[in-house]
């Protein structure tokens, strides 16, 4: 029954919502993701500079990439190619293109409606812009509960199971031992708060991403003469024009969109929770950065995995097996048996950072629901760690099926809210565009121009001083 509900929601409803509303946001914004594409690289470079005591835009990007660049980029792409053929990759690209606009608006609005958490840092996300932008507390609470259940609990158990069993297969490490080690390492990170979570992501995300891209690029380069033909096969298969994959046209579209959404998370309402923590000069600049992360996730990392699989010679139509096995064996077919070990190690890093990301989403939802309750936070951390240890030894397939349903509901609530708040998002975007057209390289958000909105004006009081080379007089103290 769960599978039937999940197939209907994620195979039909989610596709219409993600692609349909993503296209709507793209048109309404005059193709913001294309207009600002070159600008994304400049904003990304600028985001590396932070402000003492606050999280930089770069750290927020690394934190969001910790979740976006995860098992979905390895196992998810493998599943998409297995069930949908090469054409699924094309539809992943299409999903990412329209998803970049959804990500731009959800992360921009998360910045607009962010709140100071009392410790010199910020909290925000869909629950906050639903409550303060739409004045719908019940809808905001619904989103927060769905976020807590989906990411805070269910997905963490599944991720733990994935990494411990991958390590057992690669190194014959008992799942109990790897589960305990994983829980201990995560406890150190969790109890350090958002600053430590961001610091870990800041270190591990670039390492895991660059290492994975380097190895897959090696495979692509060694087979470079086959790449043009394979790209042609991907495009032709997407429209049923490749005879070997003509029967997979419907599956290519469904799997491409479904796995693409789950890989880059654009429109799901998860990334805005971490996008809101950054100290930035203008909300739209964080929207631009997060749109760039969707591009990096899908067009770079997912494409690397897809080409690795399709160029290896291991994949054949009708392949039976899971996505991890397909990726492992594809890499091993080119570089030797160490390829299987590399995929297991890469997956371990991907999963570790994913769990820290999932945990923060749950913590953010918890604080929205119950407020700044220290006892509730400690209980949540203990419960999550217990679930991770338990999940590392148990196959939580039923829990995952349920989490897929709650995540689709999460996306539904968020996308409906985005559609209702699109005028505010466009207004903020136009303010950003007007300043850039006026020659201002680093636009600043003037909250007084948006006095009609329920904004935390204290959060924007010193926006012009962020990333400034001069001392930020009156800035919040560094956290010890």
UniProtKB/TrEMBL annotation:
GO CC, alphabetical: plasma membrane
Keyword Transmembrane found: yes
InterPro entries, sorted: Na/Ala_symport
Transmembrane segments: 6-27, 65-84, 134-155, 175-198, 210-231, 291-315, 341-361, 373-393, 399-422
Predominant subcellular localization, coarse grouping: membrane
Keywords annotated in UniProt: Cell inner membrane, Cell membrane, Membrane, Symport, Transmembrane, Transmembrane helix, Transport
Pfam families in UniProt: Na_Ala_symp (PF01235)
Subcellular location: Cell inner membrane; Cell membrane
Gene Ontology MF terms: amino acid:sodium symporter activity
Topology with respect to the bilayer: Multi-pass membrane protein
Family per record: Belongs to the alanine or glycine:cation symporter (AGCS) (TC 2.A.25) family.
Protein name (database record): Alanine:cation symporter family protein
Native source species: Pseudomonas nicosulfuronedens
